[in-house]
Target: Protein tesmin/TSO1-like CXC 2
Amino acid sequence: MKKSKRGHDSGLESTGAAAAAVPYMLEGAYGGGADEDYQEDAAPAAGSKRCNCKKARCLKLYCVCFAAGVYCSSCACVECLNTLGTQELVLKERNKKLQQSPWAFAPKVEQKEGELAHKKGCRCRRSRCIKKYCECYDAQVFCNAACRCEACRNMPEGGIAAPHAIPHIAAQQQQQLQLPPSRAQQQLPHSRAPSANAAALFGAPAQPAGLGLGPMAGATFGDGLVKRASYGTAQLSYGPGQLPYRAAQLPYDVRAEDLEAALARQRTVAAQADSGPSGSSGGGAGGAGEPPPRAAGRGGPPLGPGRSSVVAAMGAGYGDSLEVLDAAQEAGLGVRGRGRNQQVRGLGPDAGRLPGASDGFHPPQHAPGGAADKHCDGGPLYDNPALLYDNPAPMHGNGGGSLYGNGGGPPHGNGGRPLHGDRLEPAVGPSYGMPTAFMSMDAIAAAAQAASAATASGLRGQHLGARAEPLPPPASGGLAAPGAGGDIPAAGGSVAAAFGGASFGGDEMARAAGGMALEQQGEGASGRVERERVARRSSSDPEEDAAVAAAQRGAPASVPCPPADDLPGAATGGVATAGEHLPPEGFDPLRRADRAAAGVAVGVMAPGAVGAAGLRGPPALGIAAGGTAAAAAEAAAAARQGPQQPTAGRLDPLPAALGADGGLSQYGSGELSYGGDDGEDHSALVDAVLQAPGLLLQDPERAEQLAVWLGLDVPQQLAARKAAQILTALLQMAGAAAAARPAQGIAPGGSKWCGRRPPTMQPAPAPLVQQTSRTLHHPPTAAPEPHSRDPASQGHELVLLHALFGGRRAVVGLDLSHGMISLAERAIQAYRQQQQLLGQQAQARPAGAGPSLAPLDAVVADASCLDGRGPAAVVMSVFGLQQMGSAAPQALASWARALAPGGVCVVVLWPPRVEAAGPWTAYEQVDRLQRHKMEWESLDQFWQVMTEGGPWRARRLAQGDAAMADLRARFAAKYDALVAEYDGAGAEQGGSGRVEEGQGQLDGRPDGDVMQDALLEITGGRSVPRVFINGSFFGGGDDTAAAASNGKLQKLLTEAGAL
DNA sequence: GAGTTTGAAACT
DNA sequence: CAGTTTCAAACTC
Ligand SMILES: [Zn+2]
Ligand SMILES: [Zn+2]
Ligand SMILES: [Zn+2]
Ligand SMILES: [Zn+2]
Ligand SMILES: [Zn+2]
Ligand SMILES: [Zn+2]
Model:
């Protein structure tokens, strides 16, 4: 379209028919500012293509033209703004991008180690990098070390990954890039034309030769300087005592075979335990490949709930795949239904399928014409109140009712009837704010109880009686040849890190664990070590002291430290002889006294609360977020006119797409407005949507999937999709009011977590970990310091543990998710390379000889069950226990059992105790507790976070707003009562009288502890607070008594942590 | 050509 | 960024 003013013709133009691509820039400087120097015309790049942008207006990098730095020409774009006539806008947007990243328009392919490679690498998940979806493949280069693709086949040697991929490029590109031919050129696997994107990948289209600007200009960029464009980090601000929260995504998928292997392994362990307690010298500690520890007598007892811990499958991946469910079901684990929330997007033939997935369950067939085969097993289960109702959990002793089913029969809401008939058989257990699809609560309960019984008889003490292996002599530097360590030697004194995040956080935690052990070791030389610092705290409150004293009955303030032979860091590598540390009869790892006697310590660090993520709650609840203004307008129009109505008369898209500042905004200005004076009152419509029964989703695809899964007919499916859009629009219109009044059954912001991790806000781990580190090293004498706001580093707790112990302790990381394991392996590999480098620098080492370092492995395994894996000097878990729901105590017990005498188990747990059951019971079983206090702005904020993003989210969804409103009222009343009580008890302040709701002690802020007390109080009735301290029953009784005891408990725990 | 799948850009 | 939504091209049928 654009006419050449100067008519430069480089002669490179490939086709006369194609209009010339017009670059903006005279110079090929990708980072250069766009100004009037742009070349108004130039020859088109050989590979330049036309775009077909419909919405981006060709002013986003979505647009290949814009990305390539040329004006649109002969493109099929709609309402294109990437034209000479809109050049100011173009340059403005371009500069905006350049401001974000100087390399925004730089080639994505650069010279790497002598070869061409994609600069940032690809992250292909499903295309195996042999489709042009993959930017590497599209650019005709091999994937390289920067890639994080899965099952990549874009590698030399037929998919065998090389240390770094050897790039290869087509001769055409060689020429274009003016590079010498690659030595890998002959391996060219690709003989196709580059896509339209290729031009962008390789930078701006070729300049006319006369300019003397080789496209290679881009090659001078990058090379270490490349920094990934970071969008506004917009980190929440948090003051002292507050924790930063952020969201994250990690590969949590669990493969069926991994689960099967984990189960088989546990089967074997159980069989060994049954056949005789002596058999196993500690059991195998799991080498690479994680085979069953031993092929013990075939055919152990049939796998039952008690024999394994599928709960970890949820912890590691929420049982995201149908395969997991199938495996669990086949294993007889009491899974009653099955479903899949694996669906990510789309409903196509292979949607949601994992490679090699077996086809199992076929949902109601959907849609005519090609859609019949659509595969949508199950669906989003988590937020469905009906599911929660239908599966009350009999586990928690009080009344036998699910916390969320309220005694098995919901008194509120829709009466607990399945919304959708029998098809809602899949069992869902709310796991305290975390979704635990596929396992009913009673199945979990049965598993946990059976596991408890089984371990009580069979496995208990097995590891403590195992013989610890002597430490190998210290390595003299460098790292031995890979694999030199071979298998983990009989697990002796190895370190088992049962981590929930393979490469996440935990650095400091690892230091803490190791440092704590070292500290013990040092003191151990004198034969004794103080292990129970909690006991020596003295309080000014006599009543509290009495409580503490009572609490610690039977738990000596300090216990003799067992010989430190097995403590990490022991330089001489002693041997803890079998029998010497056999636990006493009836040893219960969950009882502190027992652990103290056995010299086993368990520490739990618990952040204080769910988090001040802002009044609007965590992003998962970003009700009004998302949706373009245009879509919102469209949906609003549709809402007015009916789902199937045309959207004529809607807002003109152009102004809608322009942000408030006139700049282009993908999401528009955020305001929903109508082209004309609408004048209508939409509140009724808003209410209608918000109060619609069942599950409303914002994400159209997910909504449609749900409809499919529910067996609704096609019009309803389409309506569901539309409803999602409408919901978005209406929520936008409703604004804060709607956000403050979440409707029953709505899963705000739901969308696409199905196949990945459900969005939750979590405390950023680094501050916690640092805090705990300090605590473990040096018990605080004062209030905790303000948390650092440094983000968590990419954690490598395995590596750190390994290094901490001088490479002389075998370290095993466990996660059931292979994705997490591969992350860990990446870290391990980097560590090894670093070690190798250090070894080479240190050199002076004769080849060969030299002691090898202990193995360091990450294996796919069930981290919740360490039976057969001990004894371990350290067991560490970061954010793992909390995901194990009601079975958390069993997991904790398993970890404790796996500890060698003198060992240390460190657990980072979230969220706070707000109920008497579930993971929070771990609070009563710890030797040291560090609790982080949160600040809350108001009762409302606390309640909102608790019920929308926190542990009571599931309850809210299950019981509905009416019930929650009731609870809210009781909560407020209870809070008032507690405040008054505490005030009265604390001092005769002359009738501080009534404390206004939301008003607390400090700064007009409510007291988080009291609020949590109140929350705990109103949890399910008088008998619920079954509070144990050191194994002795501490709570119960009527409301008042429970109030008192609970308050004491909370204080006690707090003080214990603060010490 | 219509509908689906895909991975990266855009956004908060 | 232990995140989500939108996008246009690639892909499939
Ligand atoms: Zn375009
Ligand atoms: Zn274009
Ligand atoms: Zn255009
Ligand atoms: Zn790729
Ligand atoms: Zn790649
Ligand atoms: Zn690849």
In short: The pocket of zinc ion (ligand 5) is lined by residues A 118, 121-122, 129, 134, 136, 143, 147, 149, 154 (CB under 6 Å). The first helix of chain A runs from residue 64 to 68. The two ends of chain A are 76 Å apart (CA to CA).
